[in-house]
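QA checklist item 7 of 12: single-chain prediction sanity check.
[x] sequence parsed
[x] length recorded as 161
[x] structure emitted
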Amino acid sequence: MTDKRVALAAVAGAHGVKGEVRLKLFSDSAASLAQHQNVYVGGAERRLLFARDGGKTAIARFEGVADRTAAEALRGSLVEVDRSALPALEEGEYYHADIVGLPCVDRDGKPVGTVATVENFGAGDLLEIELPNGKRSLIPFRDGVADLEDGRIVLDPEFLA
């Protein structure tokens, strides 16, 4: 079984003419991305030569990307690492990738859906729950509303729209 991959950035386009790319970061900083030597870019494993802050975006260079044309061809590609390459977390912390796909149950253990995505619009994490009928509902990922317990989300169905 292959390790789950976690997206840390997406290639926004080329930067200059020497193969550098602009990145939209999903992680906290270019420095956290730079800690990884090997990454997957568009699914292909590549060595990360450097990643640095570039103002509003990050700038990076990957082995085998030597000019603007090659850099531009990566536009829209995800920059991912194996989940096992990420640092261990403190109690109560989680990576979004660990939450997506978890089953959701009510307080009595009855299945109510699956976590489709985790969103954050600035006021805390929201779980998008896919219900059995295919509809989706956003609920706050807060104690008492949606709790992570034993590899599943125990939620209050009153919050499902």
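[x] summary fact logged: The chain has a mean pLDDT of 89.
[ ] second reviewer sign-off
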